[in-house]
Write a structure and sequence with these properties.
antiport; disordered N terminus; 454 residues; mainly alpha
Amino acid sequence: MEKENNLVKGNILNSLLGLAFPIIMANILQTMYQLIDTFWLGRLGANAVASVSLSFPILFLVLSLGGGLTLGGTVIVSQHKGAGDQKMVNYSASQTVIVIFFISIFLAFLGYYLADPLMRLVGAGPEILNDSVTYFKVSSWGFIFLFMFFVYQSLMRGIGNVLIPMYIVLATVILNLILDPLFIFGYGSIPGYGVAGAAIASIITQGISAMAGMWILFRGKRGIKIKFSHMKFDFKWVKNLFVIGIPSSLDQSSRATAMTAMVMLVTSFSSDVVAAYGIGARILSLVIVPALGLSIATTSLVGQNIGAGRIDRAEKVGDLSALIAAIGLTFLGMLLFFFAEPLTRFFVPDDENVIQIGAKFIKIMSPSFGLLGVQQVLNGVFNGAGFTKVSMLISIIALWVVRFPVGFMLSNKTPLDYEGIWWAFPISNALTAIIAFVYYKRGAWKYKDSILQI
């Protein structure tokens, strides 16, 4: 009996941690792509860091448009797995792969040809515009590989198979660690490409991970077997995928557009503030990884248990996951509070002003990380139940009703100046955690029809 079949019985804590730990490790390793880029680009100067910092929110926006659909695949596959229907697991996986493949091609072209206006839109100054555009254009061609690995990873998580994706990510991050300085600075006959070199290194490693993931899915020895014969467009099934996945795409897109809006606020200040924000955003992306890992594990567990008709067990998963997130991320936030300055210095070792600004950003954000974790894992409960619209609405409230308006008002209408942007983060984390918790306890998510019946 394969391990993923045990998710609807046995000890909930063991199941949750057994899923969450490899997911968290894989997400940490994936975040290392950006951290490694920032580390090496920091050796080129603050402008190189700032140019990539401006590119990142737009890249995240483009990825989120298709990435939400991979979550739809996770939810559908997990519920079929819980119901014990392997034929529909394989069919659903095949349909998800072909849909995401065509979406990734479209977004790759879109990203490449809109690179310049997008970078101007977020406020790239003349000193960093060319590097920002070049980095974004090169990165766009990696969307196809990146999406193919994401869909493989999401499908594996849906059935509870999380170790092999982690190993693939580990191998490619190690390779990226080698390729980054090679293509950024050059060596021997290989010229240095500067900022673009970081994107080239990422594309190579993304291509390797995508090919590995697709090979595993077609081989069919790890719980899912996709077939070309199952990839003929089933418009009824694709509609169901979009019903589940579009709210998740809008959820992620709202996060990305809010990140872009926050960057536009930041760019009204100095390049040092932009660089500091970029470093703080990287730290935040690393900190949120445990919360996202628990959220994804919660989605898989809740989805399988709902598919098996175990609503009571699904609720116990949500309770335990929220408790772990609250305690664990609060502790992590306190550590980051006390080590904010050396962390910032690690990325930009020779710029004292950027170090002080970035450290202040981290110190203001970090005490609210436990609340951020609670909101994320409860979104995982809603997603596992197919209630993706709730997660979307919570994110919109967090980012557009609270974070951006508060950041704008505090930074432009009070003496806080740019630090007002920093304070918008803990305020939004607190309010949305409360909203998510109240909605979760109301229990409406437990009574939604299973997506197996759509």
